[in-house]
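Our consortium's second objective concerns turning raw sequence data into structural hypotheses that experimental partners can test. To show how far this objective has progressed, the report includes one record in full. It was chosen at random from the queue rather than selected for favorable results. The single chain below, 430 residues long, was entered without modification.
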Amino acid sequence: MNHRITIYRGSHQIGGCVTEIKTKDHRIVIDFGSNLPDSKTDDVITDEELLHTVFNGKPCDGVLFTHYHGDHIGMYKKIPKGIPLYIGSTAKKILEILTEKLDSVPQISEKGLPRIQGMNVFSPGKEISEFGDIRVTPFVVDHSALDAYMFLIEIDGKKILFTGDFREHGIAGERNTLEKVINTYIGKVDILITEGTMLSRREEAKWNPIQTERDLGKRARALFLENKESVILVSSTNLDSIMEFYHALPWGMDFVCDAYQAKLMLVAMEDKGKYYPEYRPEMIHGKPRRLYIVGDMEGLGEEHNCYKADFDILKNKGFTMLAREKTPKFAKVMAKFPDPLIIYSKWSGYLEGKHANAEIQEFIGNHRMEKLHTSGHAYVETIEKLINLTKPKVIIPMHTECADEFGRIEAFAPYCDKVRVLQDGEEYFF
């Protein structure tokens, strides 16, 4: 057999993902991610070793990115210039906004925007035909990154489903979308390569009252009604949650963010509003809800439905504000208000323990806080559902700290004889 799968990084950790699919004459790479901060890297291949191992002198037909999170795309600038890069069209727009922001930091010597602008875009459900005998068809999946994809890979009659990061409790996952996509377009597969992020966070998920993005929106509305001034700590690219907050805000209160966050929201509304009602503008008296901008307007204006934030006016009406803990302008706004509610909408691991983030802790300080966050990843029952739908002959877990115990988890026990745990760099022939 000349066909092989190699997970160079990500077989036993969350993030830093790089996977290769290879035939005799062709080769593709899926994701080329950075290690997450504080990840255990003692026995994991370094960035330099990874780059040399994957690309040094080896032909490659292309690198496909499942989505724009750094642990999947963070090393894109290191990929040799002649290798084509592929990503979803909305994800590319979001990356352009994000990278333009990062490139403006003086310490960044190598600018990333030209490489992002040169990326090829693929369309959901349309086969990418540039990879010789490796046929790849992308399908939209629900994830905390907007416009994320799984890939159906077909080689010599064999079908591989590479899930990337996915879930079914966000906006794109509603109405049983995952089952419909599998049953309509994918069917049974030979090999399922699935993420398992939440397998090490099962108790955390079990006791979290916010199971879905819809749950988040309902609770957010109640908090907004109870609190005239609130500040939301949420990833600026977690647009599902942001749009839930945006729609949950009662009429008569205003939505505040900075220009960077507004640009991301406007792209999301323009591209995804045609498919999902939750991504359409909130209409108030026949007009879209305004976005009030903290700091520089960065070219935004009334034609974008954006206005300069005046907190002398906003404090009388009431507002919620998206904030970023590293950005001084938000701290200055916070100083004007004695007791805003902090709505914390990030992973709880950043608040305490080994992954605690000092900047987040300092930003929150002694303010009142409510945790309001749901995972961007599949729960155990969602992975079990995917296995039942695709009926794979082989299951390869990755993007998880629980690869070795995958087959012993109660929900997966019936499939334990199908589980094939790979080590980083190990080749699996098929």
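The partners drew two points from this record. Residues 89-103 form the longest helix (15 residues). DSSP finds 13 helices and 21 strands in the chain. Both points have been shared with the crystallography group to help prioritize constructs.
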